[in-house]
Amino acid sequence: MNVATKAVRALVVRTAGTNCDRETCLALERAGAAPKLEHVLQLCEKPALFDGYGIFVVPGGFSYGDDLGAGRVLGYQLRTRLADALQRFVARGGIVLGVCNGFQVLVDTGLLEGALSERAQRGVALDVNASGHFECRWVTLRAEASACAWLEPGELLPVPVAHGEGRFTVRDAEVLARLKSARQIALRYVQPDGSGGTDVAYPANPNGSVEAIAGICDPSGRVLGLMPHPERNLTPWNHPRWTRLGPRAEGEGLSFYRRMVATASALAK
Length: 269
Fold this sequence. Notes:
Layout: E1 9-14, H1 21-30, E2 34-39, H2 40-45, E3 55-58, H3 72-81, H4 83-91, E4 95-99, H5 101-109, E5 124-127, E6 135-143, E7 156-163, E8 167-170, H6 173-181, E9 185-190, E10 213-217, E11 223-226, H7 252-268
Helix pairs in contact: 3-5
């Protein structure tokens, strides 16, 4: 008799302005997880809600209208009211994902740099796009050899971007060197055929990010943030050029979530 494997529970946070929460829950569900959507104020009131979950996701959108800066208010809430809960969650093997606005939120908390503290000095930031305007287009990502356990180095991932403040920047060369040394550079923008390195230019690099960096992880590899949206490429028909891509059983974004769920499942054992 086969005993059914218990699905990994995934906690997805939402607040005013979040608009990718349903797509994120769908991606997690199709990847084999059991997602639960919770408002950030519920988490602030009951941090124990993190218990029993293997994945925590901050989805895309425009939390609080980005009125004080992209992701700034939600980042402040997580940093000041949920710091202990988040740090315990990661320490026990939990996976944290931030997509687009979620990436901006994670950068603001300091969690990606391993220092979730009010006093910690930030070494990275997500600035206004170099083009000076909102970018909404499909791009191609390449997974780099990083600490992130569920990314396969060299894999190409076609995904859409939709942001006005996605230009990855670093405070100085020392910070960039530290990211490289700790294998924290997880994803880069490349040309559609996968070519290109640290000098990929617009529009393949849609926001002008330093060294074409599209996503980074924390030193443990269990916290990942990226600007593009894998949850918007789940089916063969999500890609605007699907008729020219040949037979595809699913969108490439689904494998991203499936491997993340599998990794969370392995860490929970």
